[in-house]
Design goal:
Length: 357
């Protein structure tokens, strides 16, 4: 008789062998261990061992015959007893589980806040981030991925790490199309920070002294919130992620590269006309094409032609690069609206962009 699969008897505490022997026994009025072993396809010794276990559970009974024979107890009573016992055990286990759940819930609030925090308020993120950088003493590891924001919307207000703190940053190359990322990277490397470039970064990330980390709550929507991680195990995993990205990224020194490019261009860049310089000066202040056109009394299309001509002469691909390289060439002049950087007393702190919320 085969009424079930080998694994189904585990629900009432029977092993595979015991269940197989019981299945054969219930279909016979009485049977010897040898007959059952042949029917179940196992050895006599295994059958006798299974029969003794079934007897302990009141599922099988020995007869007084010689040689010894076995009969099955009425299953509705014997199996029903085991089922009732198992239901009682499960009920006690469920009650204990509820007590454990309650104890966990009572402690999960402070435990979660200690290990991982979720911040959604922009000002709170900026304040906590600034504080972590201010208190850093060893190193800051940084994965910079667009979009970039600052604490107060002004690059001059960016938080900074103190002198003597090691800063290693990996920037996603696509992010250098905006002014904030390039200015920050230039100032960071100028003060001794190490910079590398990667075509793609898995997430924004800042790790401070290997004791706390900040990253977006959602990679696909980085503005929905910021996680502050304090768990040593999680921070260690994020450090490993950074080191993996760092090893695969391309080393770069923007200051040296720009100086070399400027020297090369100084011998071959053709100066542009006065009107193009006027367009570039206004563009460098952040004016849009329509505004520049109104100020100079020309069409928007003419503005774009001047910008395109300057880009071709400088070998620049973006508007910010055009303004930066035009400044190096002296095309914007000191009397332009582009502010000159003010001298900063030593030591100069290294700025780092605030992670998006």
């Amino acid at each position: 008789m085969d009424v079930t699969s080998d694994s189904s008897w585990a629900g009432i505490g029977l092993g595979v062998l015991e269940g197989r022997v019981l299945e054969q026994l219930v279909g016979l009025p009485a049977a010897s261990a040898r007959a059952l072993s042949e029917a179940a396809g196992v050895s006599v010794a295994q059958t006798e061992q299974a029969l003794r276990r079934l007897e302990e559970r009141a599922l099988a009974v020995r007869t007084g015959d010689r040689p010894e024979r076995w009969v099955a107890s009425p299953p509705r009573v014997s199996v029903g007893t085991l089922l009732a016992r198992r239901r009682s055990e499960l009920a006690r286990a469920e009650e204990l589980a509820e007590q454990i759940y309650a104890a966990y819930d009572a402690a999960s609030g402070p435990r979660s806040a200690h290990l991982v925090e979720l911040l959604t308020d922009e000002s709170e993120v900026a304040a906590r981030y600034t504080g972590l950088l201010r208190d850093s003493t060893l190193e800051v590891l940084h994965l910079a991925k667009p979009p970039y924001v600052t604490a107060h919307g002004d690059p001059g207000d960016e938080p900074a790490v103190g002198a003597g703190v090691s800063l290693r940053s990996v920037y996603e190359t696509g992010g250098f199309s905006d002014a904030l990322s390039l200015e920050t990277a230039l100032r960071g490397t100028a003060d001794g920070g190490e910079l590398r470039l990667a075509s793609h970064l898995p997430t924004k990330l800042v790790v401070v002294d290997r004791r706390a980390a900040l990253l977006p709550a959602r990679v696909d929507h980085p503005l929905t919130g910021t996680l502050i991680v304090h768990s040593p195990a999680l921070v260690a995993a994020l450090v490993s992620l950074f080191e993996m990205v760092w090893d695969q990224a391309m080393p770069a020194s923007l200051g040296t590269r720009l100086e070399r490019q400027a020297a090369e261009r100084s011998t071959r860049v053709t100066p542009v006309d006065t009107r193009t310089r006027e367009v570039l000066r206004l563009m460098a202040t952040g004016m849009k094409d329509d505004t520049i056109a109104r100020v100079l009394g020309i069409s928007r299309r003419t503005v774009q032609k001047h910008v395109s001509a300057a880009g071709s002469a400088l070998g620049a691909r973006t508007r910010f690069q055009i303004a930066l390289l035009a400044t190096e060439q002296g095309w914007l002049g000191r009397g332009s609206a582009v502010p000159e950087p003010e001298p900063v007393a030593e030591p100069v702190p290294v700025p780092v962009p605030v992670p998006s919320e």
